[in-house]
Amino acid sequence: MGDRDLRVSDAEREHVGTLLQRAVGLGMLSLGEFTERMDTALAAKTRGELNAVLVDLPGIRLNGQPQPAPASYGRPRPAPAPAGNVIRSRLSSVNRRGRWQVPSSLYLSNHMSSVTLDFTEAIMSTQVVELRMDDFCSSLTLIVPGEATVDLDGLELTGSSITNKVRGGSTTIGPLHLVVHGKLRFGSVTAKYPFGVQWRRLVSGA
Predict the structure, then answer these.
(1) Nearest Cα to 149, choosing from 121, 118, 174?
(2) Which of 39, 75, 37 has its CA nearest to residue 56?
(3) Comparing C-alpha atoms, which of 153, 88, 143 is closest to residue 116?
(4) How far apart, in whole angstroms, are the C-alpha atoms of residue 109 and residue 70?
(5) 69-128 pLDDT, tens per residue?
(6) Tens digit of each residue's pLDDT, the chain (206 residues)
(7) From the CA atom positions of the chain, what is the Rg in Å?
(8) CB 112 within 8 Å of CB 138
């Protein structure tokens, strides 16, 4: 039996997921490609199937291949820091608040975690921000400025709930528009304005 036919473990799948996340940060993969390859990696049963998601990425060693000899010249250059467009957690609480940099797209992969993304003081690079979810037993809370809009119609739900207290932007989108899609299993998503904005809207009847 060759190495390609050997069964892979959860630890190997997790390692490949880390490599794919690094490839996104280096600009080798788009968000859509990352999602497709992660789905393939999680479903892989053999090393051949698992290695297929890495085969065209330079500088990444596949399972079952020998470690390449280090170059004999020059000082190794540190890898660039990830771009920050992936939020991944396990049994954790994640909060993004204040003046954090928001990329045009975010990939969320959270298991049994609580994630809060507060956009009220965030630094935006685009008007429309895409949030691609692949969450399990997790909650996501989106806090947006008063004129923002949020579209949650693209979510595929399994035993989950959605609470949208924000305008959907079906006719006119706001200065910030969040588009949330992907898969949510046994979790929840809540989109809301800050408490002060909600209170003023309630009083004014808006």
Answers:
(1) 174
(2) 37
(3) 143
(4) 34
(5) 444 444 444 444 344 689 999 989 999 999 999 999 999 999 999 999 999 999 998 999
(6) 566 778 888 888 888 888 887 777 777 888 788 888 888 888 889 888 888 888 888 765 554 444 444 444 444 444 443 446 899 999 899 999 999 999 999 999 999 999 999 999 999 989 999 999 999 999 999 999 988 999 999 999 999 999 999 988 767 888 999 999 999 999 999 999 997 655 455 545 55
(7) 20
(8) yes
* Owner of token pair 């609470």: 163
Helix/strand/coil percent split, the chain, to 5: 25, 35, 45
Q: Do 128 and 179 form a contact (C-beta atoms < 8 A)?
A: yes
Burial 170-199 (b: 16+ CB within 10 A, else e): eeebbebbbbbebbbbebbbbbbbeeebee
Q: Which two tokens stand for residue 152?
A: 């949650």
DSSP 14-77: HHHHHHHHHHHHTTSS-HHHHHHHHHHHHH--BHHHHHTTTTTSTT-PPTTSPPPPPPSSSPPP
Dist CA 139 CA 186 (whole Å): 9
- How far is C-alpha 61 from the chain's CA centre? 24
